[in-house]
């Protein structure tokens, strides 16, 4: 009775082997129920060059254009598609690795779906190219936005009567005004355009536009900033070490630049915003010694109280406060008051 039992176990083992072997291939994934290596006539140990060589030979053999009969053409088209699919999988190292993992681990059914569609749905473009393009677009928008702000500020100054008169005075001093204007209409228009261009040029050369409306520089764009980032980090570390050694360890007094740096930090202003602060305001900061924390706190409270008094005396602000007390935008009314 022992022999039949052994044969039964052998039969079950063979069936189980066949079951798992069959399920190593999943319909709809990779080469379907066929082995990609068998489709190309190569083995798992084959190099990429061997796989490419085999693909070219089979593609040439099974290309649909090489067959004239309709039945042969349909069969060749089907084979050509299988060959192309197998080559696309095996020529890519990552997909080939996923495929080999499926062959070695047929029981991880759902994992194979995940790996397959993760590769299929992943963007084909190199991530580095995407990042580079994104940084370039941001840099262009950043520069054009700064240039637009600068031109807006320049146009405003050109229309302002005070700056126009100052520009005309500079033009007269330098002998740039053309007093021999033509009397015909076309001559007047040309003279007007020349005058406007001259005023714009004088204002641009002599007016110091700062802050967010200053003329943009190439070093302001993101690309250049990223390239120069190691240099700026090095400068910051050197500056910080110098600050600690000079003022924290040696106890030296702050210079003008150091005092302005501390004041700017207390005010929460960026470098571009600080550049737009007038010299009168900076002189006031220095007179009140705002680089000292206690002085800055007192000064800030005084400024806030002053602002509250001004708002309390402002008629428009009073109307706004009455409006808000009545409920603001959400108030209910029954006809005109």
UniProtKB/TrEMBL annotation:
Major localization listed first in the record, in broad terms: membrane
Coiled-coil region list: 177-205
CDD domains, per the entry: DnaJ
Topological type in the membrane: Multi-pass membrane protein
Residues in the signal sequence: 1-24
Subcellular locations according to the entry: Membrane
Highest taxon, organism lineage: Eukaryota
Residue ranges occupied by any J domain in the UniProt entry: 35-103
Family matches, as Pfam families: DnaJ
Keywords noted in UniProt: Chaperone, Coiled coil, Membrane, Signal, Transmembrane, Transmembrane helix
Family: Belongs to the DNAJC25 family.
Protein name: DnaJ homolog subfamily C member 25 homolog
Organism: Aplysia californica (California sea hare)
